[in-house]
Amino acid sequence: MPVSAMQIWSCVTLQVCSHRSITGFMQDNPFPQPKPVTDVWRPELTRLAPLTPARRAFRAFCHRLVKFVVWLLLDVNTEGMENFPADGPALIVINHLGDSDVPALFSALPSPADALAKIELYDLPLLGRLMDWYGLIWLHRGRPDKRALRAALDGLAEGRVIAIAPEGRYSVTGALEEGSGGAAFLAYKSGAPIVPISLAGTENERVYGHIKRFRRAPVQIKVGNMFRLEEQADGRREAMNEGTRRIMQALADLLPEKYHGAYSTSE
User: Fold this and answer.
1) Closest to 199 measured CA to CA, from 48, 78, 21, 69
2) What is the reported pTM?
3) Domain residue extents for the chain
4) Residue range 144-185, pLDDT digits in tens
5) CATH class of 2-19+50-255
6) Which of 18, 115, 171, 187 is the most exposed place for a label (fewest CB within 10 A)?
């Protein structure tokens, strides 16, 4: 079935969301739902995977496979790749709409990247182990995961490119939700440049609907200008809040207005 195929090739996705209609969901749940919290804490699984020759080869294979499957199922239009750095370190921040976000993103990148992924994906039969072999940084949600943040900082210190979704889950509204502070923390602590990359058209209902009709779903990817967060003198909390706001606003600036959500500037 096409849905199963999509679930397989989205093995490096950062979050999980319901496959129900966004419209139906909002009718049943008119208010924003609380952010998910990881039930089982397994810090022993969180680490920065070393880039051994075997892992590099596996990542290269996954990168080529994802490019092919994305080409098969999605019609991706990418703008602004000239803004993407030639090498790391770099922190990619994305908005998060559905299963196809990360496959579409990774297919557009010139080489394999690292990413933070929710620990629950580790329990998927076979796919969880494949994700682990790839070297995803497992993240426990709902409270600060110091091991995951340290692993990401170590990766940036090594010059890696790391992707993170500041919203912390798929958007339940179809538009930007409030960002969490993890991305800003990594940017402040590492000094790495931030690369905002927006995705539009990757909502599950839309993508799966096209696949069921044997059509490629149009997806738009925009790469924004890199920027850095400078330390603020008015306190750590204020700096984190302002850094998160800048990150999310950079994503909003790349997206059509209907996706702006919590970062809309319209009256």
Assistant:
1) 78
2) 0.84
3) 2-19+50-255
4) 889 999 999 999 999 999 999 999 888 988 899 999 999 999
5) alpha beta
6) 18
